[in-house]
UniProtKB/TrEMBL annotation, chain A:
PANTHER family assigned: MULTIFUNCTIONAL METHYLTRANSFERASE SUBUNIT TRM112-LIKE PROTEIN, UPF0315 PROTEIN-RELATED
Record family assignment: Belongs to the TRM112 family.
Pfam families found in the cross-reference section: Trm112p
Organism (species): Xylaria multiplex
Protein name: Multifunctional methyltransferase subunit trm112
UniProtKB/TrEMBL annotation, chain B:
GO-annotated biological processes: tRNA methylation; tRNA wobble uridine modification
A GO CC annotation given for this chain: cytoplasm
PANTHER family listed in its UniProt record: ALKYLATED DNA REPAIR PROTEIN ALKB HOMOLOG 8
Start-end of Polar residues biased regions: 20-31
Listed GO MF terms: S-adenosylmethionine-dependent methyltransferase activity; tRNA (5-carboxymethyluridine(34)-5-O)-methyltransferase activity; tRNA binding
Methyltransferase type domain location: 84-175
Name of the protein in question: Methyltransferase type 11 domain-containing protein
Region of interest (Disordered), residue spans: 1-39
Organism the protein comes from: Xylaria multiplex
Keywords: Methyltransferase, Transferase
Domain of life of the native organism: Eukaryota
């Protein structure tokens, strides 16, 4: 599961949907792998407005990446700065979490990630 | 829904050896009654566990995208979009859009099918359609193909649509396909007079059982699994979309299926 996808995932528990601390989920004991994917500048620029930057910053730090700037780069920044573009591409698209857990800070539930697949099925008492 | 017990005969499902004295109506009512008692338990038995058992065989028969869905993905989705496929099965729609300019995430209730999709390199998660793990309003579009008809009460079907709508942004689109009641030319032969709640057999041939031995089939004999379906009547999917608080942007019929594209209503 790519870091990009983690930005779109939240806790599956109904009562957590309105709790701000249920997002983003926090990686725990995360095992990462790096893929080699062709960089697509236009795609990254188009993606930017869909990304929750604050959540991405949290995730990046928790996964051991250098801190992201406090505001997202503009399209102009990305076009002008090859390194920023490259780093963002690497974080979002080339980095996968393949093992570990995703933890909700609101309810404390831990979702297992195995072989790249996160499992969001809930035990009956949380449904 | 007002359609009442009629005196018609629905197609006999293959080889289940049910008592001939049992009428179609009694059977369908028993389906409805059993489902109503505990929809979750009913769907566990007649949907989830079936897909776990037939995943490999099922997946091998599901590789051709429906033409309208393929054209939706190729022609109507803007570059840079993020899309979800709820009930993605083996992931057959996750790779339809080529060129790497759209990001898709799939989810399915069946861990075996999700495993197959993952093996094809897609980003997928195991999740229940009524407890989705997606950030509200995060997606440009959501696909939900051949899923909603497996929910055994109208309340749950409408709730599932409500949860799909919650995933898309203000101008996002939710494309839903369900099996139609009106399919007189299909081999099942159902039509407007047929019962809408059906148990539909999936026959796993002996040789398939061999291949799928790990998933619970018996080697050497055919095994029949029954999946629950609610067959949608013309107009019903649109009604359910509106009951879920959505707006019907477009709808149609394609090869034994009703489809709808829903979005948020203008007020919201
Ligand atoms: Zn939670």
């Amino acid at each position: 599961m790519k870091v990009l996808s983690l930005n779109f995932l939240t806790c599956a528990v109904k009562t957590c949907k309105t709790q701000s601390d249920s997002y983003p989920l926090h990686p725990k004991d995360a095992e990462l792998v790096q893929d080699d994917i062709e960089l697509n500048e236009a795609f990254l620029i188009n993606l930017l407005p869909r990304i929750d930057w604050k959540a991405l910053s949290t995730t990046a730090t928790e996964l051991g990446f250098p801190a992201l700037p406090s505001t997202p780069p503009t399209p102009e920044d990305l076009r002008a700065d090859a390194k920023t573009l490259r780093d963002l591409h690497n974080l979002l698209l080339e980095t996968q979490m393949v093992e570990g857990k995703l933890v909700c800070a609101s309810c404390g539930h831990e979702y297992a990630v195995r072989e790249g697949i996160a499992n969001f099925l809930l035990p009956s008492h949380l449904v | 829904m007002s359609y009442s017990a009629g005196s018609h005969v629905t197609p006999v499902t293959e080889g289940k050896g049910e008592p001939s004295s049992m009428t179609t109506n009694a059977k369908s009512n028993s389906i409805r009654d059993a489902a109503a008692q505990s929809p979750e338990a009913y769907e566990d038995e007649h949907v989830h566990s079936v897909y776990e058992s037939i995943a490999g065989h099922f997946s091998s028969t599901r590789y051709k995208p429906w033409p309208f869905i393929a054209s939706f993905l190729r022609e109507r989705v803007a570059a840079g979009s993020v899309g979800l496929d709820v009930g993605c099965g083996n992931g057959k729609y996750l790779g339809v859009r080529e060129g790497g300019d759209v990001h898709m995430i799939g989810s399915d209730r069946s861990p075996s099918l999700v495993g197959i999709a993952r093996g094809r390199g897609f980003d997928v998660a195991v999740a229940d359609g009524l407890a989705l793990p997606f950030r509200p309003g995060c997606a440009d579009f959501v696909l939900c193909i051949a899923v909603i008809h497996h929910l055994s009460t109208r309340e749950r079907r409408v709730d599932a649509l409500r949860k799909l709508l919650a995933c898309v942004r203000g101008d996002g689109q939710v494309l839903v396909y369900v099996w139609a009641l009106e399919q007189s030319s299909s081999r099942r032969g159902w039509d407007v007079d047929s019962e809408q709640d059906q148990l539909v057999p999936w026959v796993m041939k002996a040789n398939q059982n061999k291949k799928d031995k790990e998933s619970g089939g018996n080697e050497g004999v055919d095994t029949t699994y029954e999946r629950f379906y609610h067959l949608y009547r013309e107009g019903e999917l649109e009604d359910d979309m509106r009951a879920a608080g959505g707006r019907v942007l477009e709808s149609g019929y394609e090869r034994d299926n009703w489809w709808v594209i829903g979005g948020h209503s203008e007020k919201s």
